[in-house]
Amino acid sequence: MPDSIIQQRTLICFDYGKKRIGVAVGQNLTYTASALETITSKNGKPDWDAIARIVKQWQPQAFVLGLPLNDDGTDHQITKAVRQFSNQLQDRHPFPVYHIDERLSSVEAEKLVKKKRKLSRNKGEIDKLAARIILQSWLDNPENR
Questions:
Q1: Cross-strand bridge partners of residue 25
Q2: What's the number of CA atoms in the CB half-sphere (13 Å) around residue 122?
Q3: Which of 28, 36, 37, 134 is geometrically suited to a Cys-Cys bond with 66, CB 3.0 to 4.6 A?
Q4: Is residue 4 part of a domain?
Q5: Listed residue (105, 101, 50) closest to 79, CA to CA
Q6: 1 in a domain, yes or no?
Q7: pLDDT computed for residue 120 by the predictor
Q8: What is the sign of the dihedral through the CA atoms of 137, 71, 17 and 109?
């Protein structure tokens, strides 16, 4: 098969939080991402049944995970929990997990929600939009093609 032929890959992105996890899906042929849903964590733990349902439905070839960093590039207070989630995700679903700096994705998502719906805050909507923004950023990077 020639090197110029691109194999289609579906990617699922998670914007991890201790209370909610935003989820988006995208693929590498059109380089587009779409917000899917927000998963509510149970007692501070990811809802692995909901994640398994999404994985079964979309059958991804890889995951993208937003990595929260401080403005100076150092780890944020939740970065350790995100890395732990990443390890657990890969243990349960043996696909590659790509990390991407997610700085300001939630801020951008909040602006979209306010503009779109004129709501002061809708956290579930913000989380899945943040996941879409993170995944779109990953897809837009030529190094990931």
A1: 12, 34
A2: 15
A3: 134
A4: no
A5: 101
A6: no
A7: 43
A8: negative
The residue segments making up the domain with residue 72 are: 10-144
Residue 100: left if φ>0, alpha if ψ -120 to 50, beta else—which one?
beta
Q: Tokens standing for 77?
A: 């207070």
φ and ψ of 88, to 5 deg:
-65, -40
Q: What is the CATH number of the domain that holds 88?
A: 3.30.420.140
For 128, half-sphere exposure in the C-beta direction (CA atoms, 13 angstrom radius) is 14
Nearest Cα to Cα of residue 84 among 11, 14, 10: 14
**Dist CA 47 CA 140 (whole Å):** 29
Q: In total, how many domains does the chain have?
A: 1
Q: Is residue 5 part of a domain?
A: no
Amino acid found at 27: Q
Burial status of residue 101 (CB atoms within 10 A of its CB: 0-12, 13-18, 19 or more): middle
Q: Classify residue 132 by its DSSP letter.
A: H
Would you say residue 32 lies in a domain? yes
Q: How far apart are CA 12 and CA 114, in angstroms?
A: 25
Tokens describing residue 65: 């995970």
pLDDT along the chain (145 residues), means of 10: 69 94 94 95 91 97 91 84 95 95 64 55 79 92 81
**CA-only gyration radius of the chain, Å:** 15
